[in-house]
Structure formats: structure tokens, C-alpha cells
Q: What sequence folds into this?
């Protein structure tokens, strides 16, 4: 039985919006870091994988927020390996405040990639040896396809810049969510609360790429998003966001 | 005598470049947060000022880095009110690692602004009542003008987006530094180490503004930067960066 972990963050002034609430891309960076902390404890962090010519690839993330923490609030992110289905490794998250109230929760799906071949690989033994954590109330997996975006109502073009690039020389996942959200009209971002984001990561992008961020409403409070490479048209990210 | 303060940060995977080093805009966000923590203790935080219809305005920041912390490193930022010259309030910073080695240092100059009139005001009594911290080895102030950028060698246009905006509905200062650096050629960013940045903040910008980021080398390893509003030509930020 593996163990879950918990990481603590304090919301910074550079991480909040005009309402004083931490933004969702920042919360996703907290989840990423909590996952890194827990996998370090388990000996299966990205650094452990890189030593073996492998790396983690985030395939899907669904996050629901019930309440947003504010500047200077303490945020606890609990995370654990929650399941495995063939090559898909599941990791769940619960987000608490200092009073141990549940602020949000998330599920995620990860794959293992061969760094040299740049292709997905079967899950190696040293990862399957780390059993799934028990004793955690399970969250429902994000399953099924997201509907395809038929016609874009909103469009933004974004150039990948130096500070968007991470250790692997690829765009850090948190930026895709930021660019997806920023394609929406200001009125949505200003007047509504983002309650849920379901994000499927399909392909990578790197420095100098130009990305088209498309979005369209499908029903009240529901938006579909698509990020694609401007030059090749290749789909990078598909997402759905729910607002209240 | 007022007291200095110290705040601790742990470098996240979303805060590093491809070398694994924390980026300078992220370090500046650590300094901002450490200043917020210390001014909160002193009863003169931005929230304390806003209650009186006032706010802090960062006028100049000069930061020198001797060594960059890496992912998962603990970073301690020590900060104290270091001096006062008429309406200019000085605040210094020293940046340490867990072994208490000095990684970098910074000086900054702050002004007080009347939020309603949107103009600078004399330093109110409740701020001057907080005496300058003693017992700290002083850092040399950033003084004098920066040379004007005569002719731009590099130019980028950036649109201010939702996630760049902070509590005051203005661009958070850390983003100006990011945009200044991103105007430089990739070779500089990839192959050289940023050793020093001296940034003068002249004017604010807000959502929807387009900003022109200009830069030019003046001597080997030295660049001048200018950020201006594309529509009005108004200068927002002037900066100088040193590289090794």
C-alpha cells in the first residue's frame, strides 16, 4: 500500500485576481507540486523517471472548486495514487483550507513516456510496484470524450514565450488552462465563478510556437475550448469549463 | 525601531526554466510577498493602506542574483524598511538558501498613492511612525537615471490578459519584468545568466492594453529595456539588465 501525501501552500498577491481569489491555473500549479512531492516520497517522481529515460505525461485533469481561497490563505492539497487502468495511472486530489473545509477536488490521469523515442510506454515495474493508496474516499474518474467544438465563438492567438517553458522545454500544463480561459469574454471572467474545468492534453508545444485558443458556449454556463498549433492545425488541448 | 521580517518559499516546478532554476520574475514575486508579510506585521500593509484610501506604489526595484535556487529548494527572503527620503520609502531584501548562503539581494523604493485622486501623496503619519529597521547592513540605493533607450534592436507586442491583472485591476509588477526579458533573443535567455535587473516603474496599465516591449544592447552583457503603451506611446517601465 502506498501513502498519500499532503503539501501546503500560502496564496501570494501575484496569484490572485481582482476579487482577491487565487486563479484556477495557480491552483493547478499547486496540484502539480503536491503530485511531485508525493511521487518523490514514493520514489517515482519525474526526476526518478528521467534517470531511467522516462517521464510523466499528464493526459487529463478535471478540477472542481466549491470555494476559492484568498490572498494569504493557507491551502492544503492532499493527493494519492487512486487507481490504474492498463497504461493509465490515476491520481486524485482534495483541496482544503486551514479549517479543514473542502474547497475543491480533482482527478487526473497520467501516462509514462519514453524520453528518447518520444512515445508512450507500458508502465514499468518500479511504478506498478507502488501499490494504489487505500483508505481514501474515491472521486469519480473523468471519463468519456469531450464533445468536439463545432464552431468557435471566441478566438485568441498566443505566442509561446520563454517563461512558459519548463524543464522539458515544453509548455507547462498550467499555461494551457490560462490560455483557454483568456479566450473567453471579459464579462465571463469578471462576473462568473469558474466551478469546473475538464482538460485533455493531447500534444506538446514549445518555444516560438503560436497557439490558437478557441472557445464557444454550448449551454448557459458551459464552454468548450480547443487549443491548436497555428501552423500545423494540430490539436494540443481540449477542455470544457463550467461557470456559475 | 521597526523589525525586519523573513518569509520562506519553496521553488515549484512551474517556476523554473529548462535549467531547473527559478526565474527572476518569480523571485520578484517572492520579494513582493515578503514585503507584504513584513508590512502586515508592521500594520502598514497594502490592505491597511486601502482602508485609508491609500495604496503602495513600487517605484524602483534593483535585484542582483549571485546564484539561482532550483526546484524544491527552500528560499528565505529577509526584508526590512531601510530608509526614507522625503516621499520615497526604501525597503531592502536579502535572499538566502537553507544553508544560509546569500543567493541575492535587492533594494526597492516605494511611494504612497491616494486611490481616489490617483495621485501621489505625502507619507502619512502612521507610516512615518514606523521607524526604520536598524541592525541591518545597508545595501546601496539604486540611484540616478537609467540611460534612455536610443534605438530598439528587439521589439515584442504583448496584450495585457486577465491573469496579468491583480487586486487593483492593474498589471502586477512581476509581469513587466517578464515582458522586458522576453523581448531579448532566445540565445541570450538560454545561454546567459541574468545577474542584475534595475527596473523603474513609471505608469500603470490595465486589461486590454497592448504593450510594446523594446530592448537594445549597450555593451557586452548589458541591455536597456523600455515598455510603452502601444496606443498612447506612454512609457510604463524602464529597465536595465546585466548578463554573464
A:
Amino acid at each position: 500500500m502506498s501513502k498519500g501525501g499532503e503539501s501546503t501552500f500560502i496564496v501570494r498577491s501575484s496569484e490572485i485576481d481582482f476579487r482577491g481569489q487565487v486563479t484556477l491555473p495557480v491552483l493547478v500549479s499547486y496540484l502539480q507540486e503536491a503530485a511531485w512531492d508525493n511521487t518523490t516520497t514514493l520514489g517515482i517522481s519525474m526526476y526518478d523517471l528521467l534517470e531511467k529515460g522516462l517521464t510523466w505525461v499528464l493526459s487529463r485533469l478535471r478540477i472542481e472548486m466549491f470555494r476559492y481561497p484568498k490572498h494569504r490563505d493557507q491551502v492544503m492539497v492532499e493527493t494519492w495514487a487512486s487507481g490504474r487502468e492498463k497504461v493509465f495511472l490515476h491520481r486524485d486530489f482534495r483541496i482544503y483550507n486551514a479549517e479543514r473545509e473542502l474547497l475543491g477536488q480533482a482527478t487526473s490521469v497520467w501516462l509514462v513516456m519514453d524520453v528518447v523515442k518520444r512515445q508512450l510506454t507500458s508502465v514499468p515495474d518500479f511504478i506498478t510496484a507502488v501499490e494504489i493508496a487505500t483508505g481514501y474516499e474515491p472521486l469519480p474518474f473523468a471519463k468519456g470524450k469531450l464533445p468536439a467544438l463545432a464552431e468557435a465563438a471566441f478566438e485568441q492567438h498566443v505566442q509561446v514565450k520563454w517563461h512558459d517553458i519548463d524543464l522539458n522545454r515544453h509548455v507547462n500544463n498550467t499555461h494551457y488552462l490560462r490560455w483557454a480561459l483568456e479566450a473567453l469574454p471579459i464579462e465571463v471572467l469578471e462576473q462568473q465563478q469558474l466551478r469546473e474545468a475538464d482538460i485533455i492534453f493531447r500534444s506538446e508545444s514549445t518555444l516560438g510556437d503560436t497557439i490558437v485558443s478557441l472557445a464557444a458556449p454550448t449551454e448557459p454556463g458551459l464552454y468548450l475550448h480547443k487549443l491548436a498549433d497555428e501552423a500545423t492545425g494540430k490539436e494540443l488541448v481540449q477542455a470544457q469549463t463550467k461557470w456559475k
